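At your convenience, could you comment on the folded chain following this short note?
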Amino acid sequence: MKVFVTGATGNIGAAVVTELLAHSHEVIGLARSETSAAKLEAAGASAVRGGLADLDVIRSAAADSDGVIHLAFSNDFSAPEALAAGIAEETAAITAVGEALIGSGRPFVVCSGTPSIPGRASIESDPLPLDGPVGGRAVAVDRTLALKDRGVRSSAVRLPRTVHRNGEGGFAGILTQIARSSGLSGYPGDGSQRWPAVHSADAAALFRLALEAAPAGTSWHAVADEGDPVRAIAEIIGRRLGVPVGPAPAETYGAIGAVFALDQPSSSAHTREILGWEPTGPSLLEDLELIRP
């Protein structure tokens, strides 16, 4: 299958490219720079130059593919305005891909986060929250899944709050960055809230399975660790960096401080049963031991 991938050189995207190539797919990645294009070519993929704002490039590449995996996002959480701009840019790009695939029957895999459900672990049939700082991303995902009625085999892989590799990535990676710069390995609230996690290679395997086999309009959970207490995450970060551990105010975490404070465990039982996905990588707490002091 000829697969167009956005965000193909990021933490998750690079793993997805490796996974697809290992299973005999041809990969064309969206590359914003010569450096990104060179990384793709070195991995054995092809590159098309452009970013999420280059909608004509995105439409053309999607139309010329056998399927699309969307992973790109600005990841600028510094202020509400920056986050809103990133969501608007992503929404336009997803819409462009969907328009290019209408009536084709081809797969289009998008990503979102696992939802937070009070009192229990979220499951694949739970709706995504359409409000809050990242609610706009959920709106775009729901619109994409609705393309099942317009001849697109659309599906969504819901990612946990940390997709990690070598102790880096996701919310835990942000905690590490803040600890390095502030000298405190902090956590919001009392740190008892739980975050799900998955290794990037395991997440990549699920994206491939969704591309190959997911029925139209379905959602799947890329969750290996159902929920690690945030304080436990912060304690390992503090020990590895040699800095104290303690609570920090929500504003420490910028526009998504409220999301950081949520208890949000998640299950992938349905995903494992139906798609046969079985994560094999290290847990988040094991992987954090690789953080460099």
The chain has a mean pLDDT of 95.
